[in-house]
Records
---
Amino acid sequence: MFEERLRREIPVSEQNSHLEQMGLGLRLDRPEPDTIPTQLGGESYVHELISSGAPLAEVLDRLCSAINVEIGNVASVVLLADGDEEGAHTLAKCAARFGLSNFRSAGIFSRNGELLGTLETYCCPPRTATPSEIKIIERAKQVAAFAIERRRSEEGTRSVLEA
């Protein structure tokens, strides 16, 4: 009821702008499949986090939240390549236990082709991703790769300066 009133009284573009400023990564309007934006809702906030040196876990969590909102009814997580294999297997088993199915699993690669991690997206009930949802996931992979590479670069610079 409140949401309906809010939508009638305040234009959606203003609501989205306010939500974006709050860094929530939410969008109240849904793009048509052929007009997927080149940016995820909340992506500019994710870039601000990256630029400000926020912890990588926070950046990737915010990115996953943006995916979850853009696609709807999914749960996303980024698993870093330097993490343990058993953790990924445990995650998949836990998701299945809670009735979630693998919606999409996508490798995150550096510019030189090195595997940085995977973007795992789960849903309930089982379904396959639409072309527009695949575009959203591909964009998120690019942002995740940028965040991970940037963090590695910062850590490398820090270790050289400390030596």
Note: The domain at 56-162 is CATH 3.30.450.40 (Beta-Lactamase).
---
Amino acid sequence: MDFPDFDELAEDAVQFHAEEIDFDLPQSEQVIDWIKATIVAEESELTSLNFIFCNDTYLHKINLEYLNHDTLTDVITFPYTSEGEPIEGDIYISLDRIKENAAKFKVTFLKELKRVMIHGVLHLCGYGDKSEAEQKIMREKENFYLVKSQ
């Protein structure tokens, strides 16, 4: 499957930020194109999407404050629109978790980062991961779009 045209999406619709860490996303322009193309392929629209790269401590605080979860996690996605509306959201990613999981799963840091990034995007496109069936679909979608990112 080829990606559909995504030129109509705003140039600055996808942005990257860092909190309490120093990080510049490698190949950021290609990653933006990949994310936009994924959203269009999923028949969603995009208004704005912020990726916030941070450390475990920063994301743990967010997990406690907003979700009441006292655990470390690699990603938290905050949608600001309802399903079916153009995507507007924030995706927080702990680079500490990415580094650890990349070693655990024997993949590169960038591949694991992209997997987690697209996982957050898929949540914003309406996919869940609470049940086993949802997790299976999510993993299949992640793998499909990871291949497209290369």
Note: The chain has one domain: 14-148.
---
Amino acid sequence: MTVIRGCEMPDELLYDVDNNIWYQENDDGTVTLGMTMVAAAMAGPMVAFTPKRVGRTVKAGKSCATIESGKWVGPAKIAFEGEVVDANSELNADPKLANGDPYGLGWMVRVKPVDWAAARADLLPGTEIAAPYEAKMAAEDFAGCEA
């Protein structure tokens, strides 16, 4: 587990640092994604989660869900094109799951990527995110998850 300024980042996941999203490959060819602990800490307590509907294809760089907290409302941008095959109804009912368990119960959606091999090449493994995340936190003047 990589820990950056108190923020836990599991090594086995892949990351889109710019958009604060994690990705996990599933055995069935789908990919589960969610907000990182950094995103959850920066946003504060979540108050709403609205995913794209199942069956919808989302283009790379576009929103697969809308997230709302007391501090922020905005898109969760996916790094690659894919079809939404599942959405976390538990997160929809209790958005604070994203704050308390961002890598478990707080997952957002599962997608079937159009080209996972190409998409995967653009994501960083957890073992390589310390320096990019440290730079991002410094640039955004974010003290960390324990601040």
Note: Residues 59 and 81 are 4 Å apart (CA to CA).
